[in-house]
Design goal:
Bound molecules: adenosine-5'-diphosphate
CATH superfamily of the largest domain: P-loop containing nucleotide triphosphate hydrolases
Order of helices and strands: EHEHHHEHEHEEHHEH
Number of strands: 7
CATH topology of the largest domain: Rossmann fold
Structural class: alpha/beta
Distance between the termini: 12 Å
Helix content: 40-55%
Largest sheet: 5 strands, parallel
Number of domains: 2
């Protein structure tokens, strides 16, 4: 199964996509996670992407497209994948379509998570992540077992640099300008399923599972 998650920053794409990995046995691919990993490892790509990400701007298409296409060519994607955070521009969507057409393995489902902007800002401001990439929590909606510590390694949680108010605003603008047009793009292809992303994690997962069944 080849699935795309669309939705504004903070809509829960990453959290929901990760939940589906266990139940569907296909990898979740987050360009945000791949880019943050490149930044942590201080690779040439990471050094180029870092400034864009901190400010909340999109990383240039040429970098992200190359990164994603390399990732989906790996053997673990043979049975499909869940893309979370890609595509984010029309150029990215077209590059993906082209690459999958060559293999006759098109995208089958696009899940569009719809949510109000006010709610999203509260979610992002309260988000805390593990500095070692073990996951993310929310101070109110999904707190870790021990206050402000990673459930897996116990290290103190941190706030993502782009979860500061200024960057959040920039990310929301980038979403409206560059990513929102993809809703029509996939609706026109008959692939779009929009769900209300408000509600607790299990409720939203339930709605997504209903789309797949
Ligand atoms: P969110 O969806 O909450 O904004 P992500 O972790 O998906 O967070 O992305 C974080 C940042 O990584 C983005 O603000 C952007 O700078 C960069 N990024 C991730 N995916 C893409 C993409 N497909 N195209 C361009 N930039 C991207």
């Amino acid at each position: 199964m080849r699935v795309i998650f669309l939705g504004p920053p903070g809509s829960g794409k990453g959290t929901q996509a990760k939940r589906l990995v266990a139940s569907h046995g296909i990898p979740q691919i987050s360009t945000g996670d791949l880019l943050r990993e490149a930044v942590r490892d201080d690779t040439p790509l990471g050094r180029e992407a870092n400034g864009y990400m901190t400010a909340g701007n999109l990383v240039p298409d040429r970098l992200v497209i190359a990164l994603l296409l390399e990732r989906i060519r790996r053997p673990d994607c043979g049975g499909g994948f869940i893309l979370d955070g890609f595509p984010r521009t029309l150029a990215q969507a077209e590059a993906l379509e082209e690459a999958l057409k060559e293999k006759a393995q098109p995208v089958e489902v696009v899940v569009n998570l719809e949510i109000d902007t006010g709610e999203v800002v509260e979610r992002l401001i309260g988000r805390r992540v593990c500095p070692n990439g073990h996951g993310e929590w929310h101070i109110r909606f999904n707190p870790p077992k021990e206050a402000n510590r990673c459930d897996r390694c116990g290290d103190p949680l941190i706030q993502r640099e782009d979860d500061q108010e200024e960057s959040i605003r920039t990310r929301m603008e980038a979403y409206s300008r560059d990513t929102k047009p993809l809703i029509d793009y996939y609706r026109n292809q008959g692939l779009l399923h929009t769900i209300d992303a408000l509600g607790n994690l299990d409720q939203v997962t339930g709605k997504i599972e209903r789309i797949f069944s």
